[in-house]
Amino acid sequence: MAPPLIDHLSEDAIARLVDEFYTRIRADAALGPVFERAIPGDWGPHLATMRNFWSSVMLTSGRYMGNPVAAHSRVAGIEIGMFDHWLALFEATCRDLFEPGIAVEFQTKAVRIAGSLKLSLFYRPDRPWPPDRLKGVTPA
Ligand code: HEM
Question: pTM for this one?
């Protein structure tokens, strides 16, 4: 039987999410290879960074100090079209682990952050920006 859904946000709950999400990412045919290329060795530091990141976002703990735009601009093979797939995997993981209200809170944040990452990484003023790519992007 599946374990009960988590109904309380905590560092422990975030650690469970991060472990499960990146297990699924690594097994994913489209995203797995991109991540494995960028993180060929020990995944411990990435998982720790991601626990800090989600702790800062969801619990305003201030534990994350990094620069996601700079980090993603170094990821070889990252494409704008991969973001919807990333978000779908993240949403399914949250739904499998958390009560619906918590799952929605995570997904709302993820969509917003993905939108701003997409803009920072891929927007060029001299190129058209198709409306379907604007999902999650809040106008200034
Ligand atoms: C196509 C989608 C994405 C891909 C392929 C991707 C890939 C990666 C990879 C490979 C790293 C590790 C970089 C390294 O250590 O050298 C990374 C780091 C990270 N990712 Fe993503 N990512 C994606 C979307 C997202 C989204 C939507 C979020 C947030 C909601 C996110 C948050 C982060 C954060 C916070 C880090 C750590 C950055 C740091 O080192 O401080 N990523 N990502």
Answer: 0.92
